[in-house]
């Protein structure tokens, strides 16, 4: 299943759940919109953290702290001289393929709950 059809199936399922709740049990529409809001916010938060890690934001902190602690420790400097390490730092970049799914779904659930809440407030519940 490709990415677009998976995202489309989640969106259609969410609309079906929302509209069936509106017509079958309208008193639970606020609870459903709250649930969509929480799902959207959590997915956007997780996606943001994964994006920060994927872009290598913490790599400089890790490399600088290793360099700092190795200059403080004379034993570490001797070990690096004996092993012949020239101080090259490994890259800590990581790819998250789920990031392509998390952001659009989080944005969809967030916007769906926002629009649904605005409509609910305007119609007077």
UniProtKB/TrEMBL annotation:
Superkingdom of source: Bacteria
UniProt KW keywords: Membrane, Transmembrane, Transmembrane helix
InterPro entries: DUF3899
Membrane-spanning segments: 6-25, 32-53, 98-121
Pfam families on file: DUF3899
Domain DUF3899: 34-117
Keyword Membrane: yes
Entry protein name: ABC-type multidrug transport system fused ATPase/permease subunit
Organism: Sporosarcina psychrophila (Bacillus psychrophilus)
